[in-house]
Amino acid sequence: MRTSISDTALRQLIEREAKRAGFAAVAVTRPDAIPLAPARLAQFVDEGLHGSMGWIAETLERRSEPSVLWPEVRSIIVLAMNYGPDSDPRDLQSQKDCAAISVYARNRDYHDVMKGRLKEIAGKIVARAGGDVKVFVDTAPVMEKPLAEAAGLGWQGKHTNLVSREFGSWLFLGTIFTTAELEPDEAEIDHCGSCRACLDACPTDAFPAPYRLDARRCISYLTIENKGPIPLEFRQKIGNRIYGCDDCLAACPWNKFAQAASEQKLAARDDLREPRLIELLALDDATFRTFFSGSPVKRIGRDRFIRNVLIASGNSADAALVEPCRALLADPSPLVRGAAVWALSRLVSRKTFSALAQLALKSETEADVIAEWQVTQAEPARTQA
Fold it and tell me: What is the DSSP secondary-structure string of 327-363?
């Protein structure tokens, strides 16, 4: 039940508490403010562009219409947290002995950080205004980006991510659904113009057209959501990116405003700014879990992570990585063993690789790993280790 607080006072409360909690921006929209989003999402799924992310198709109805997710919602408060990096993350790609982890994953899992703060704000809204609230951060079937655009926090750029005139492409989004009737903010308009910097920056050509993403070609999908071997056609293009990819975000010209933003930001862990491949290759399950405790990286598990590190190792031309990669040919995980095969095919001479294949194939029983040996033996060697 709504208590006797004015709409102006409630809005001031929301903005004050959002700032106190470290959010860079907050705005309000209606649950019916994204009428075009359902058809666009359905097309994305119908064309199979979501890849193996079956949860998108399974939650299609709830995801496309906020009132289906919660019929009582009357207003949606959209909050944004700035995580802009201090430098261009693409600079790390020239350091072949290091691994590039997406900026968003270089600290605590933002889902955990934001959800706790959203709950605090939501609790104060209920305490002052009554009613009911629900908070969501990314993992729930909520289309945060269209809602953020409708609320005026930014617009969905040609890379399909939210772009802000104040913070560029570096914003985490969360929402508070409320039964309170709040005055909505004016929607933002598209300011991309003729620019296609984000599209041209994609290493794997994951954008079939502006504003459309083929997740199956996206390095973030390939290194995070994809559970199997990295498709051969993308391995060299991945470079040293072992978790996600920031290229399309980093290329956005609007980021120049993000650097000057004074709001509190989520800073990266020092040990995740330039982690060395040789150290990451040594992680077993226990040390992986410890090293990435509280990090979103932990969610993909050690085997998928080491798969990614091995792909980066194969692209490194670093002879110091040969022995660590060779040791992983005996790893319990077929996924890891297969990736180690490819890495070694790039790091050692044809003669050395052939000898390794003859020895390994005597005991290898997994079809995928055997196929890796067969395919990579036909590839030319890259070094003379």
Answer: HGGG-S-HHHHHHHHHHHHHHS-HHHHHHHHHHHTTT
